[in-house]
Specification:
mainly alpha; 2 domains
Length: 132
Amino acid sequence: MASLLAFVVWLPVDPEWDRLLAGGAQAAFAFVLGPVWRIVTASIVAEVASELLDTEIYHLWVTRVTARYQWLRVLTSNAISVPVDSLIFCWGAFGGVLPEVVVWSIFWSNVLVKGAITLISLPGIYLVPERD
């Protein structure tokens, strides 16, 4: 991922975008994607933390609430882990670099998109047989 982001920042800018941004497109792009290792580290930390949290919530639901309603287990665990993932990633990758309002905007966009994907893909959990 670090190599890919570094490569993307290195590529020449689209002339149309550069014209629209008065010659500053490449600098703006490099500013956001330039701190490659910070973005990669934030991504890894967010993934590990949110997956561990997701697994624990799912497990607690099965052991303390009910083993039925698999869709509700997934929905509950994702409702907690998705915002945590987005919070860690957004602030780890962009906090202190971009304005707070922009970081919060990225956070809410992430939560909304991931939440929508959760809802759309929820029926798919029944395509995978559960193990006892």
